[in-house]
Amino acid sequence: MRMQMALRQIDFTAAPRRTAPALQPQTMDETLALKRRDWLLDVQERQRALSPYASGLLTADNLSGEDFLHNFYAPGRPVLIRGAMAGWPALDRWTPDYLADAIGDAVIEYQGGRASAQDYELKKEKHRQRAPFRRFIDLARKGGNDAYLTANNSATNAPALAPLQADLGHMDAYLTRAPGMLWIGGAGTFTPLHFDLTNNLLAQVTGTKRVILIPPSQTHRLAHKSHVFSEVRDVTNEARLKLYPQARDVLRHEVLLTPGDALFIPIGWWHQVRSESFSTMLTYTGFHWANAGHEGYPAG
């Protein structure tokens, strides 16, 4: 995919950044300011809706690094990329049996005890568990949301899972050679609605995952109270929608990730992810361009 456009470059020099004076409560009605912000975001979404190209989720085959930067990374727009993982041995090899034999009984860390708690993403430290890898694979085969090896466990697991790196290729058009963060889980593993503080590239290796993407403009409909998470949790769950009816009308894209698909999710885009089968995936954040949105986030 290439956009055929004639552009005139206009150079400009940004003014020096100055620290804005603290707003005094009596100088601005904060509620009115938020209403004006949400009005502007709604107007922008209505304008994008005039064009299927501007408002849709695009799919690109063999997307070049230059097109990715100019049309997606810099504008902060999601895209589903196909063909970038062609030839990776892991696409064919990473069955549960192969993984169990490759890693054996090396002790790994995973997120456990998730089925009995709703705050398992907010309180990740509480759910860290350790087990021989072969035993974890047995848990994952059973399906359900109770046991999941996630990106949060990557640093701890890097030595044990190092043998799997030989099965992976590289997406040099978009990424440095920094390793990705591995996810392994059974059918039914679920990551509730949230956004990330970095740009992410999700690389689906085996199995299928269903991803729902919601643009940042919809934040005021999603009960955003805790860090980067939505109280809605799951926009497909009728019980949650009864509690948060504003979330019924959010704009959203639904994507089924299959082996070899790479999904770019920009900073601030809401998403929830559910595995439909035993699944392996990597998250990459080592892009060739700046990716440091987390540094200034007002966590509250």
Short description:
22% of the residues lie in helices and 23% in strands.
Strand order of the largest sheet: 1-2-13-8-15-6-5
The percentage helix is 10-25%
Using the coordinates shown, work out and report the CATH topology: Jelly Rolls
Q: Considering the protein shown, what is the CATH homologous superfamily?
A: Cupin
**Low-confidence runs of at least 5 consecutive residues:** 1-8, 19-26
Number of distinct helices: 8
Counting DSSP E segments of at least 2 residues, the number of strands comes to 15
In whole angstroms, the N-to-C terminal distance is 41 Å
Largest sheet: 7 strands, mixed
How much beta, percentage-wise? 15-25%
**CATH class category name:** Mainly Beta
The CATH architecture: Sandwich
Based on secondary structure, the structural category is alpha+beta
What average pLDDT do the residues reach? 90
What is the molecular shape? globular
Oligomer: single chain
Radius of gyration: 21 Å
Number of domains: 1
Order of helices and strands: HHEHEHHEEHEHEEEEEEHEEEE
